[in-house]
Design a protein that fits this description.
Layout lengths: L6 H13 L6 H13 L4 E5 L2 H11 L7 E5 L5 H7 L4 E5 L10 H4 L7 E7 L8 H8 L5 E5 L7 E2 L2 E2 L6 E5 L12 E5 L2 H10 L8 H6 L19 H32 L13 E2 L5 E4 L7 H10 L5 E2 L19 H9 E4 L7 H17 L7
Parallel strand pairs: 2-3, 2-4, 4-5, 5-8
Antiparallel strand pairs: 1-9, 6-7, 6-10, 8-9, 11-13, 12-13
């Protein structure tokens, strides 16, 4: 992954520096409004990362010790960690093999009387079937939080992912299509939650630093609750506004490249990430399943590296990491197969056809050198 950054972003960041206001200020507010509108939400609250956004989403729901939140193990570890930060217990559920996402059928078996929320990840930009999970959870009084870290620009049932989300958290890390270096956003339609999220990200103050500066009169702020320092800077927001203006073009290019990958990989008979029936993916990552009988994924990655291709292991499984050793879970056969047998191929905006051909040629050579029988 190479972020698409250029002179426009550099100039926007420089203008923020020259303005003298580099902390959270007017550019953050402008970015919040523009991003929220782009995903069909009423409110956006910029934060320092998607991880802190997820933490605030769980916190604002009043979830804590003794409560459970269902999460996929097949996700970056921040998904589960954000639940632990509140003292609640993450409960791992399995995922669907075609999408890498939770579904109503994988969530239902792990629900208990202590379940307060389900955190649905739109894995690698592939939209999850959120409506089905909400239909399962709503009668039980269980909230649905959307981890949309990778999903800016993906669609669900014809609308942007995040539309009608109770709470959704987004990432602007450099591996995402829209980047501010580091940074994130929480979107919601609830004005009271939005107001509290803004306080929580800034130490619980009832007046932000920007509001005090622009108030025109002396204001002595109050700190209404124990909170956090999860702010975004105006420098980041300035970059984010430029990036947001490019998002449609970035997605169109990635979908063009993904279509060509599907075409040139067809001869290898590999299963690949694709659009689900209920939406479209932004192809934040392009994963492939290694065929049955393949050698250890590390051997395949090493073979690709020897041929000049830097690929990456597939999506991690949090329950297999040392940080979750001893953390009990249901059996997760799809998750464990997914994390063991997938890898992520290079995909970036200015990738050329010859570079794609190099990737496919290297993958084919690596598989055949290993004397694999590739599924047709």
């Amino acid at each position: 992954m190479r972020p698409l950054l250029g002179e426009e972003e550099a100039l926007a960041a420089a203008e923020a520096v020259r303005s003298g206001w580099v902390a959270q200020g007017p550019r953050v507010r402008e970015f919040e409004e523009a991003f929220a509108a782009s995903v069909g939400a009423s409110h956006g609250v910029a934060v320092s990362s998607c991880t802190t956004g997820l933490h605030l989403a769980v916190h604002v729901l009043g979830i804590g010790p003794g409560d459970e939140v269902v999460v996929p193990s097949l996700s970056f570890i921040a998904t589960a960690n954000s639940v632990r930060y509140t003292g609640a217990t993450p409960v791992f559920a399995d995922v669907e093999p075609g999408t890498g996402n939770l579904s109503a059928s994988t969530v239902e078996p792990v629900l208990t009387g202590r379940t307060r929320a389900v955190m649905v990840v739109h894995q690698a930009g592939v939209p999850a079937d959120v409506d089905a999970i909400k239909a399962l959870c709503a009668p039980r009084g269980i909230a649905v939080i959307e981890d949309a870290a990778c999903a800016a620009g993906s669609t669900y049932k014809g609308a942007p992912v995040g539309t009608n989300a109770v709470l959704a958290a987004w990432s602007f890390h450099p591996r995402k299509l829209l980047t501010t270096g580091e940074g994130g956003m929480v979107t919601t339609d609830d004005p009271e939650w939005a107001a509290r999220l803004r306080r929580l990200r800034e130490h619980g103050m009832n007046f932000s630093a920007a509001d005090r500066h622009n108030g025109g009169s002396a204001v002595i702020e109050q700190y209404l609750e124990t909170a956090f320092n999860y702010r975004m800077t105006d420098i980041q927001a300035a970059v984010g506004l430029v990036q947001l203006s490019k998002l449609d073009a970035i997605i169109a290019r990635r979908r063009e490249l993904a279509a060509r990958y599907h075409e040139v990989l067809a001869g290898l008979g590999l299963e690949t990430v694709r659009d689900p029936e209920h939406g479209t993916t932004n192809y934040q990552s392009f994963w492939v399943w290694l065929p049955e009988g393949a050698p250890d994924r590390r051997e395949v990655l090493a073979g690709l590296a020897e041929r000049g291709v830097s690929a990456r292991r597939g999506i991690m499984a949090s329950h297999l990491e040392p940080a979750y050793s001893g953390h009990g879970s249901a059996e997760l056969p799809v998750t464990e197969a997914f994390t063991a047998r997938t890898l992520i191929l290079p995909l970036f905006h200015d990738m050329t056809e010859s570079e794609q051909d190099q990737v496919v040629s290297a993958l084919s050579a690596t598989l055949h050198t290993s004397r694999l029988t590739v599924r047709g």
